[in-house]
Write a structure and sequence with these properties.
Layout: H1 3-10, E1 21-27, H2 36-39, H3 47-55, E2 59-65, E3 70-77, E4 83-86, H4 91-94, H5 96-102, E5 119-129, E6 135-147, E7 150-162, E8 168-171, H6 187-193, E9 201-205, E10 213-218, E11 220-222, E12 226-234, E13 247-248, E14 252-257, E15 262-266, E16 276-278, E17 285-287, H7 289-299, E18 302-304, E19 309-313, E20 327-335, E21 338-343, E22 348-349, E23 365-368, E24 370-372, H8 374-383, E25 394-396, H9 398-401, E26 404-409, E27 414-420, E28 429-431, H10 470-473, H11 478-485, E29 494-495, H12 500-503, E30 517-518
Parallel strand pairs: 3-8, 4-7, 16-25, 17-24
Antiparallel strand pairs: 1-2, 1-10, 2-3, 2-6, 4-8, 5-6, 6-7, 9-10, 9-26, 11-28, 12-27, 13-16, 14-15, 14-20, 18-19, 19-23, 20-21, 22-23, 26-27, 29-30
């Protein structure tokens, strides 16, 4: 067990502040092992679904649902708004053919007959449609929901009986984006209404790619987890629209070489708006094609038609210049003074079997963490489906969020953003409270984190698929271990009705009766 993981476990129950709920967020699904090679069979589903199956992609939380509480694992998703749990009789859980098709078994499931607090709200009221055509559907219920040492009473959620993924989802978005025809208080609303937190806001710290744990704070900010001042950005609101997803204005991305030379790609080159959705439910990040082309060219990436993904030589993980580029990092700009730097190593996912290689002889292929949104257009063309979303959007998933500390304020429609202080082992929590009407101070407070990066990453051995350290030599990188040991997980599904505004807001997506979900 790493030092960071041990420290976070101490903090799981409650933060020191009265109305702050803090708990551990775990990368991937521990203890789930499915063969890595079969999961990458060439089949006609969206590529990131395959990637998530192999890498254990996504960040998960442990909860208890019902009375007595049934322990469940749920994907943490800032890009959706409903909480849903997987029923014990769900088709995926009882059909091995479906498990083989979608590359994972069920993990923890929920049985309403074993709970004294279960109540039916609407039979067959929940349905969501994913980009690959798969769906999740079931009933709306209310249940007691325990997380981080507190219990939310009678939380409305979906009880799913048909699914394409083996875990439930904890959606943390705006209730207006719920799948229910009649909107209801979701977990953020209920925590506030029941007096468990003083503000409808939470902070997300995913931490270093090479570690397995981060943290989530409901109602608070941890100033030890970020560097410098916390920038406060207004959420993007479309003309005549409404706030329905966590989007901020995004102005440029630049890539910097080891010698300091920088090349900037402004969003002004686009003929459409491209506010960035900050979505923890997506493993990868996506930029418009006009912005990704220079980045991919600078790194000498290749495109895999089989996976429908851009791949990169894994040598970039270990040497500064495998192809003479010496590119060191990317910088994302959201205002003249708000920037987040993402080291190149954070964008390289070493999760593919050795059979995948780049065009360079003898090289291994890794998945590149920034993909072009043109992939969605090509998928739409292949599927001959006019209802698929277009490619004019920006989505910043885990490959970006790991380098950032993000505060989501649903009351004041603000995003707090700062460079993450990776591998922090200390905690200083500031409780948030909603400002009273008429006061001068509204929204997120002006806070400053640590002055500089405090620690460095120290690899530690982890138990692998074979029960020994690192699974018999799989290495200390959790992603590499997942590929070798077959860690499963279908994280990274992003309901785009919940790329919301990319749908409703910017008019980029066409919304149908069911949500479209970009993984």
């Amino acid at each position: 067990m790493s030092l960071l993981f041990a420290v976070l476990l101490v903090l799981v129950s409650r933060a020191s502040s009265k109305n702050v709920v803090q708990f551990n967020v775990t990368k991937g699904l521990p203890g789930i092992h499915v063969g890595s090679a079969p999961s990458l069979a060439r089949r006609g589903t969206h590529a990131e679904q395959l990637i998530n199956n192999i890498s254990g992609g996504g960040y998960y939380v442990s909860v208890k649902v019902g009375t007595p509480g049934q322990k469940l694992t749920m994907l943490l998703d800032t890009g959706s708004s409903d909480a849903w749990v997987l029923g014990h009789e769900a088709d995926l859980c009882t059909d091995q053919d479906l498990q083989h098709l979608y590359g994972m078994p069920c993990t923890d499931t929920y049985d309403p007959s074993k709970s004294a607090s279960n109540k039916l709200v609407k039979a067959n009221g929940f349905r969501i449609t994913y980009l690959d055509g798969g769906t999740a559907s079931g009933d709306y219920i209310t249940e007691d929901f325990a997380i981080g040492g507190i219990t939310v009473k009678s939380l409305q959620m979906a009880y799913v009986t048909k699914a394409v993924r083996g875990t439930g989802i904890l959606g943390l978005g705006f209730s207006i984006s719920e799948r229910a025809s009649t909107k209801y208080p979701n977990i953020i609303d209920e925590m506030s209404d029941q007096g468990l937190i003083s503000s409808k806001a939470y902070s997300l710290y995913l931490n270093d790619r090479r570690t397995d744990s981060g943290s989530l704070l409901f109602g608070g900010i941890d100033t030890d987890k970020f560097i410098g001042p916390l920038s406060i950005l207004p959420m993007y609101k479309p003309p005549g629209g409404y706030y329905s997803s966590f989007e901020v204005n995004f102005t440029a991305v630049s890539f910097t070489y080891a010698n300091g030379t920088e090349h900037t790609i402004p969003t002004s080159i686009l003929d459409h708006p491209a506010p960035a959705v900050l979505d923890s439910g997506s493993t990868l990040s996506y930029l418009p094609d006009e912005m990704t082309q220079p980045i991919h060219a600078a790194l000498g990436t290749t495109y895999s038609p089989d996976l429908r993904m851009t791949l990169i030589d894994c040598a970039h993980l270990h040497t500064p210049s495998p192809t003479g580029t010496a590119l060191s990092h990317l910088t994302f700009t959201f205002s003249p003074t708000t920037t987040i730097t993402v080291p190149l190593r954070e964008l390289i996912l070493d999760i593919l079997p050795p059979s995948y290689s780049t065009e360079k002889k003898g090289s291994r292929a890794c998945v590149f963490g920034i993909q072009s949104t043109a992939l969605f257009s090509s998928a739409s063309d292949d599927d001959d489906d006019d209802d698929q979303p277009s490619s004019n959007f920006t989505l910043l998933g885990d490959t970006f969020l790991r380098s950032a500390y993000v505060v989501y304020d649903l009351t004041h429609y603000q995003i707090g953003l700062a460079q993450a202080n990776l591998n922090s082992t200390t905690s200083t929590v500031v409780e948030l409270s909603s400002s009273s009407p008429g006061t001068e101070t509204t929204g997120l407070p002006r806070l400053t984190g640590v002055s500089a990066q405090q620690t460095t990453f120290t690899p530690t051995s982890t138990a692998g698929a074979n029960g020994g350290p690192n699974g018999g030599g799989a290495g200390t990188d959790p992603e590499r271990n997942a590929a070798a040991g077959g860690g499963a997980g279908l994280g990274g599904r992003m309901p785009v009705r919940e790329v919301v505004a990319v749908a409703v807001v910017t008019g980029v997506f066409t919304l149908l009766g069911g949500a479209l979900v970009a993984f």
